[in-house]
Amino acid sequence: MPSTPEPKSPLILVSLTLNGHAAEFSVDPTERLLDTLRYRLGLPGSKEGCGEGECGACTVLMDGLPVNSCLVPTFQARGSVIRTIEGVPPSELGTLLACGATQCGACTPGVVMTANWVRSCPEARKSHTLRELMAGNLCRCTGYDGIIDGLQAWIDGLGTNPPNDAGGDR
Ligand code: FES
Ligand code: FES
After folding, report:
1. Do residue 52 and residue 66 come from a single domain?
2. Of 25, 53, 100, 157, which is least surrounded by CB within 10 A?
3. Can you give the CATH number for the domain in which 105 is found?
4. What total of structural domains would you count in the chain?
């Protein structure tokens, strides 16, 4: 006797703001935000490293806060404001590149998104070092000194000045 196919979950309508533009689509309740961004909405900048919330390569901003998009069911982003690496002006990346903060680049999109939050949050910078605030973003190339130097200069608004002139707690 033929088996009955499993009933499919009903799709959920999601409306959100993505990099300043309204977006609306329907998703399965199990779809991850990372997959929605990469494969449904054509934004491959957010990377998948571990897929389990450990590495931060998939970091995006959700209502201004960094989240691991591999752990967020897309339907939970309904009504939110999402910003991805594609929404960051290339001019903002100059300091990072000048300080040698990228090697293979796999961690860079997530690093930049977390750094955007760090830069927008002076209270957090008062109570934690930059290295502590960036602890959720792992770099398998272990380029942490370059990353922290580049971010410190970027946050301080020092353009492409040498990282050793950036000052501040690391
Ligand atoms: Fe999401 Fe590693 S891929 S935290
Ligand atoms: Fe390669 Fe960070 S630059 S993982």
Report:
1. yes
2. 157
3. 1.10.150.120
4. 2
Residue 22 phi, psi (nearest 5) = -70, 140
Q: What is the pLDDT of residues 88-124, one digit of tens each?
A: 988 777 767 667 678 898 999 999 999 999 988 989 9
- Six-digit token string for 105: 């680049």
52 C-alpha to ligand 1 centroid (Å): 5
Residue 52 token pair: 């389990």
Matching residue, tokens 């998009």: 69
Q: What are 20's two structure tokens? A: 């300043």
Residue linked to tokens 């309904």: 78
The Cα-based distances of 107 to 15, 75, 104, 147 in angstroms read 28, 25, 8, 10
**C-beta separation of 81 from 17 below 8 A:** yes
Q: Whose CA is nearest to atom 2 of ligand 2?
A: 139
Within this chain, do residues 69 and 30 fall inside the same structural domain, yes or no?
yes
